[in-house]
Amino acid sequence: MGIIQKNDCIFCKFVTGEIKPAVVFKNESVLAILDINPAGALCGHTLVMPKKHFETIEDCPEKELKEAIAAVKKLVPAIKMVSGAEGINVIQNNGQAAGQLVNHVHFHIIPRARGDGIHFNENRRKPRPMELTEAAEAIKKALE
After folding, report:
1. Engineered SS bond to 12: which of 5, 27, 92, 102, CB 3.0-4.6 Å?
2. Are 64 and 53 in contact (CB under 8 A)?
3. CATH number at residue 24
């Protein structure tokens, strides 16, 4: 289970008000702030996080995840309108290898425009014919 706040977590310091970010939305359980290192040229790159400290998505209870995703859904149309975005990426980096820089679960809402230079589809590969079937079966078994 997560803790209310963690002393060395910058996002927890945003939640407590020790550090004052640019807040775009907050309620009892969620805080959404503008990213100070936004991706792309459009304004509005937003970070949405549970107020309680959970390091990864696996640690975060469903209730907090549902509340965070509900906030993401509420914010997307407003961010699109304000930024003039043609599309939006919603990304959750989970673990250092996946690019998680702050160990407090959060979602990125990134406003996008065609040709904006942001690339997430690099290093794709063609799987072996049976690889997808084998991987799907292994994942289903791990869920049991």
Report:
1. 5
2. no
3. 3.30.428.10
* Structure token pair of residue 14: 């945003």
- Quote the number of domains for the chain: 1
Q: Using pLDDT thresholds of 50, 70 and 90, give the confidence band for residue 1.
A: very low
19 assigned to some structural domain: yes
**Is 106 considered catalytic here?**
yes
Active-site residue, selected from the candidate residues 45, 53, 106, 108: 106
- Stated pTM of the model: 0.90
Please tell me the distance from the alpha carbon of residue 130 to that of residue 136, in angstroms, as a whole number: 10
> Confidence band (pLDDT; 50, 70, 90) for 133?
confident
In the numeric block, which tokens belong to residue 4? 């209310």
How many Å apart are CA 97 and CA 119, to the nearest integer?
A: 17
Q: State the Cα–Cα distance between residues 27 and 18, nearest whole angstrom.
A: 17
Residue indicated by tokens 């990134």: 110
